[in-house]
Amino acid sequence: MSTTDAALLEEVGRDYKYGFHDTEAPLFKSEKGLTEEIVRAISGRKNEPQWMLDYRLKALKHFNERPMPNWGSDLSEIDFANIHYYVKPTEKTEKSWDDVPDYIKETFDKLGIPEAERKFLAGVSAQYESEVVYQSIREDLEAQGVLFMDMDSGLREHEDIVKKYFGKIIPYSDNKFSALNSAVWSGGSFIWVPKGVEVEIPLQAYFRINTENMGQFERTLIITEPGSSVHYIEGCTAPTYSSDSLHSAVVELIALEGSRIRYTTIQNWSSNVYNLVTKRAQAYKNATVEWIDGNLGSKVTMKYPAVHLMEEGARGEVLSIAYAGKGQFQDAGAKMVHLAPNTASTVLSKSISKDGGVASYRGLVKVMPKAHNVKCNVRCDALLLDEKSTSNTFPYMEIENKSADIGHEATVSKVGEEQLFYLMSRGMSEDDAVSMIVNGFFEPFTKELPMEYAVELNRLIQLEMEGSIG
Amino acid sequence: MTPATMTKLAIDRETLNTLTAQMADWLKAERIKGMEQYEKLPFPVRTDEAWRRTSPKWVELEGKKVVAPSTEFGQIGEGSSPDGVSFGCIHDLYDEKLMKLMARKRDNGINSFTAVNQALWQGGTVLNVGQDVNAKDLALHATHTFQGGDNALALPKSVVHVGKFSKVSVIETFRSDDAELLACPVIDIKVEDGSDVRYVFVQDWGEATNCVPMIRTEVGKDAHLQVLYVGLNGKVSKLFVESDLEGQGCKSEVNGLVMASHKQHFDFDLNQYHRVGCNVSDVLFHVALADESRSNFSGNVLCEPGSQKIDGYQQNRNLLLSDRARADSMPKLEIQANDVACTHGATFTTYNQDQFFYCRTRGLNEAEAKRLLVRGFFQEVVNRVEQPVVVDYLMDLVAEKMDHVLGK
């Protein structure tokens, strides 16, 4: 590690309150590197059915053949041979918090999870490294028939549902990283909501990387049967290590007729994590899918949540914010694919770049020839806080139907001087005034979050903004 | 030597050596440099970002033979052009001094097509305007007409140099017959400090002509350049515009007025580089699409580090007149300075049904009503051309195209 890296690391560690790490004590840790043996070993340890092993091997073959994407951020530094693809921290998935090993509990205590749970959380599933270690679900939800468990248990206990949908929305051949995930996936959430059931309280999961050079490859599958609804929240953190980690998840959502899924992510990986995630949803007749996506951490994020509007009346929404600080590349966006008539979608993207960070919006709106009367509105706002930083906008619009009504708007600006002047004339310091304006800029996003997340986010932003005026 | 007397030129060293045997050293060197570039540059492939939506196979250079145009020089509007304006055939007017004046600071906007053009260009225009010349009442007009044929390649080169504090307006119309032709015009425009220039590129090719035009501009301090691309006819068109905003206080406008029909394929690749701060770039592309035509708009506003206080606008509006037409739009921004105002937008709509209904209630037939609405759609772009004689010329061309597409 060169001295500049060390300085950068120190910089990174200072403000990152999740930068702690526990001494590792895993039960099983795969060798570094990606080989067929490792894939077989992962599958073997989980006692998976043959079709899943075959799927993993096909995906591995595709991963090896597929070239690295040469667009977007620079990914050349990822060394696939230097990653632990599977680390198993405990023997089995625990049902009660008391049974969770102390060292893992300590980590989660620092994250504030059990407290939150005591108050009102429906269920917490925390992914610590590759496996989900703790999960509880409120009894009334269980009585309603809602399935909420980690993906490995999902595969074991509900193989029929998993087999029906797994890899159908995002095939392993979608991109290099979906292939990687399909080959070595472990953990993630599996949610199935029966017909007509409305899950009133958000379901939550927490993902954390604790091992150096660790890859986290969770796989999430959410299915809402007709007329049901669910709100799922995930948070992500990792300790600050000197070498880079890789997070490459695949998330598949299926919203059947008239159902509703809201998927909220607050991504706050430490600044040495490559966050390369594939997220896609299918919305059927009159169904609604909303992605609420907050990207604060990581070194490089490339994430474009997609909604495929499959049948008439479907709605898709993406609301995202990105914060790119020193050395960060936030390449986020949204994809809306209109396959059916009378479908509508909205994208609102807000980004802030500071201290040389690069924030990009990269999005796609596609209207197929038979999708009549489609409405889509895309809005991207970017705020640049200093002259070293960069903001990019790369919207792609492919319209093949004349009745479509598509609008795209983007603005890039700095903090308004009049606003700043006004707030300071009311007695605020410049720092406070800027962070208030920034919070206001993110307001359309934060107001969609549950209260405790909104407070947390505001505080995080405030922390990042400290001393931003030189 | 006039271009008409020349035989068809193959793309190889031997032909180039014969062609340049009698030429001055500076011109020879420039052409050989072009050939070297051509040999070095890989021909684009489908996976290149710029060629993802237009197959390079449609515009292969391999085995093509260069043909020369016949050109008419004239003007639109009354009056005679003032002293200090030299306007005419590039073979007569392009000299070493002008070449040096046109030397580019940057190396953006170079591809296989511009390289082969630099090596083997045949035909084209020179417009060289001195200082303090006001020639804006009229519009200079050059019409290049090519005859196509098997493997025919058109490589016209146009050079526009406008000295300080001058005003000038020029139109180039490119025509061809209905035989097969690939056209790769290269237009270099350099606008010195404080001048005001309008350049109109009218594409009126025959139905079997594919083209890859490149327009490269350099705009000096406090200068104003308006480029207008009028896309009407031709088969496949892949337009590149590379604008370098080199001076403070300058404004670079790139406007487009495109009426596509049948199976026409248009692809626009526009880059506005803010090399220094305190200037304005403005892109407005209105594209009407009928039948099975297709349009791809890819625009980029690039603000380099330190280019503060810039305004960057980018608008692409698409009017879809048919269910089978397709429009793609990628208005991009790459901003590396914080004190800027950049906005872009893209819209896709069909004509307004209420307006259409109103027109019909006033006794217009279907074709007339549509024509009126399409004309209205183009009006915002046309309004930017503040010269009535030029507007009339353009609207006549558009009306002719609408006769074809929408009926009378």
Explain how this protein is built:
The complex is a heterodimer of chains A (470) and B (408). With 470 residues, chain A is of the alpha/beta class. Chain A has two domains: 3-303, no CATH class; 417-470, no CATH class. Chain A has helices at 3-15, 36-45, 50-65, 102-111, 113-119, 139-144, 151-157, 159-165, 176-184, 417-425, 430-446, 451-465; strands at residues 28-29, 87-88, 123-128, 131-137, 147-150, 189-193, 203-208, 215-216, 219-224, 229-237, 245-247, 250-255, 260-267, 273-283, 288-295, 300-303, 306-309, 315-324, 329-338, 344-353, 358-367, 375-384, 390-399, 405-413. In chain A, the strands form three sheets. In chain A, strands 5, 6, 8, 9, 11, 12, 14, 16, 17, 19, 21 and 23 form a twelve-stranded mixed beta sheet that branches. In chain A, helix 3 (50-65) packs antiparallel against helix 9, helix 7 (151-157) crosses helix 8 and helix 10 packs across helix 11. Chain A is globular and about 70 Å long. The model of chain A is unreliable at 8-14 and 114-124 (pLDDT under 50). Chain B has 408 residues and is α/β, with parallel strands linked by helices. Chain B has one domain (3-352). Helices cover 22% and strands 42% of the residues of chain B. Chain B has helices at residues 13-20, 25-40, 90-93, 96-101, 112-120, 353-361, 366-384, 388-406; strands at residues 9-10, 65-67, 70-76, 85-89, 125-129, 134-146, 152-154, 157-162, 167-176, 181-183, 186-191, 196-204, 209-211, 214-219, 224-233, 236-245, 251-260, 265-274, 280-289, 294-303, 311-320, 326-335, 341-349. In chain B, the strands form three sheets. Chain B has a nine-stranded mixed beta sheet with strand order 3-6-9-12-15-17-19-21-23, covered by helices on one side. In chain B, strands 4-5-8-11-14-16-18-20-22 form a nine-stranded mixed beta sheet. Chain B has a five-stranded mixed beta sheet with strand order 1-2-7-10-13, with no helix packed on it. In chain B, helix 7 (366-384) packs antiparallel against helix 8 (388-406). The longest helix of chain B has 19 residues, at 366-384. The N and C termini of chain B lie far apart (46 Å). The chains are: A alpha/beta (470), B alpha/beta (408). Strand 24 of chain A pairs antiparallel with strand 23 of chain B, so a sheet runs across the interface.
